[in-house]
């Protein structure tokens, strides 16, 4: 029994070493999908989106839309409020750990039946919901990463 366990352990160690060697050779271990710049931006290389690194707000939805559209960050313009899908993508992205994070963020996505509501994404749990536009939530602007 002791010999069989020793052989199994050696096989597991060898399999782990070979797996790690394959990852290093493929570049998967060394490839970090986020580019953190010193200009207040984080670029997600997978989605191709550039995100504002710091949280703004809280503010109502109209103020959030205006804030994002008027933002000049990292010498770049063309910022906007993200869609709810983009915010969920950021929640799932490893880039999120490189940013300050609040609880709920406004998206630009309106609630279809009643446009006095807009979608928010709760970064504590990663779920979206709708709320009235006068409510105050955090803002994180986004733009194409080029």
CATH architectural label of the largest domain? Roll
Distance between the termini: 60 Å
Q: What is the domain tally?
A: 2
Order of helices and strands: HEEEEHHEEEEE
Short description:
This protein has 146 residues and is an alpha+beta fold.
Can you tell me about this structure?
30% of the residues lie in helices and 27% in strands. It is α+β, with helices and mostly antiparallel strands. It folds into two domains: 1-31; 32-144, Mannose-Binding Protein A, Chain A (Roll). It has a four-stranded antiparallel sheet, with no helix packed on it. The radius of gyration is 21 Å and the shape is globular. The N and C termini lie far apart (60 Å). Mean pLDDT is 84; it is low at 20-30.
Record keyword descriptors for this entry.
alpha+beta, single chain, four-stranded antiparallel β-sheet, globular, 146 residues, Mannose-Binding Protein A, Chain A, three-stranded antiparallel β-sheet, 2 domains, 3 helices
């Amino acid at each position: 029994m002791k010999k069989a366990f020793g052989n199994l352990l050696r096989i597991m160690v060898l399999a782990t070493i070979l797996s790690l060697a394959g990852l290093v050779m493929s570049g998967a271990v060394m490839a970090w999908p986020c580019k953190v710049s010193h200009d207040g931006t984080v670029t997600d290389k997978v989605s191709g989106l550039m995100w504002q690194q710091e949280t703004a707000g809280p503010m109502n939805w109209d103020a959030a839309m205006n804030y994002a559209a008027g933002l000049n960050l990292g010498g770049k313009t063309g910022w906007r409020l993200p869609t709810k899908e983009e915010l969920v993508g950021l929640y799932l992205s490893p880039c999120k750990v490189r940013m300050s994070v609040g609880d709920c963020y406004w998206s630009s996505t309106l609630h279809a039946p009643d446009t006095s509501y807009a979608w928010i994404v709760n970064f504590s749990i990663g779920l979206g919901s709708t709320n009235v536009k006068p409510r105050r939530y955090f803002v994180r602007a986004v733009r194409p990463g080029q």
